[in-house]
Write a structure and sequence with these properties.
about 280 residues, elongated, 2 domains, mainly alpha, about 0% strand, about 90% helix
């Protein structure tokens, strides 16, 4: 099995450090606000106290950040090692390696598949876990804080509805990214295969003076990879632009919803206060 007790332990360690990191982020925001308040109000004692607290908490913040990096790196390493062992055992079992390299043309660049691709898969798997867990925790805390404050449940509900619709649109827009990533991996593997083929057959190529032909093959493989990476960068630019527009619209929506609720609440309180004053004057 690829996932065992040690992987679960590192995964729980990542979850725990993510919670601690969120707590530290909230403390830093509050501490920064207190420092700014001390500067604006010219309160030297308040400023000195909060700056002192900031320097005292810095070792703990550094420990949390580096613990998160350590757990993530160890989880990547363990997954890569166990997955590599599993694949190597199946690769050298019987005559599998011989059939793949000699008879099966559908599987190319086996060396890259068993090394770089396994490494990329392990990194992507851990990144997916952390990139999903941290925003989910932040959303839960944000909804809880906004619900218990003056905004009530209206603003979180509006925000979650907007995020659901926007997330669906972005997911649909990102669909071509999968095929682009697959093609990028294939082109990188093809470039490595051309280099390895040149190294393997360098004696025959030199004997038949095929250096010009090999140069064309190398440049052609490099050009295909370069053109594809350019297309990927253009696609990512468009997706990031759309993502930023949606994020800014979300922030504006939250701002308008929250202030509309505050304005409504303030207007109602002002109206009730005026009624109380009029009744007092009448009596």
């Amino acid at each position: 099995m690829v996932v065992g007790p040690s992987e679960y332990a590192y995964a729980f360690g990542i979850a725990g450090t993510l919670v601690l990191k969120t707590v530290c982020d909230l403390w830093l925001i509050n501490n920064g606000t207190m420092i700014e308040s001390g500067i604006i109000n010219a309160d030297i004692k308040k400023l000195q106290y909060n700056i002192g607290q900031f320097f005292l908490i810095m070792p703990s913040l550094a420990l949390v950040n580096n613990s998160l990096k350590f757990f993530m790196s160890q989880l990547r390493l363990n997954i890569r090692h166990k997955l590599s062992v599993l694949l190597y055992n199946r690769y050298v079992e019987g005559l599998t390696y011989y059939r793949i390299n000699v008879f099966d043309n559908s599987v190319q660049n086996v060396d890259q598949l068993l090394t770089n691709d396994v490494d990329k898969f392990s990194n992507a798997l851990v990144d997916v876990y952390t990139n999903v867990a941290k925003p989910l925790l932040d959303v839960i805390i944000l909804v809880q804080r906004m619900t218990i404050t003056y905004t009530g449940s209206a603003t979180p509900a509006t925000m979650m509805g907007y995020l659901a619709i926007a997330g669906t649109l972005l997911t649909y827009a990102r669909k071509p990214l999968t095929s682009l990533t697959v093609k990028e991996t294939q082109l990188e593997g093809q470039l490595r295969y051309v280099h390895s083929r040149l190294i393997t057959n360098c004696e025959e190529i030199a004997f038949y003076q095929g250096n010009n032909r090999e140069r064309l093959v190398l440049l052609n493989a490099l050009k295909k990879l370069r053109d594809h990476l350019y297309d990927v960068s253009i696609f990512r630019f468009n997706i990031d632009f759309l993502d930023n527009v949606i994020a800014r619209c979300k922030c504006q929506l939250n701002f308008v919803t929250g202030h509309a609720r505050v304005a409504t609440k303030s207007g109602l309180e002002f109206y009730i206060l005026n009624i109380d004053l009029r009744e007092t004057k009448v009596f």
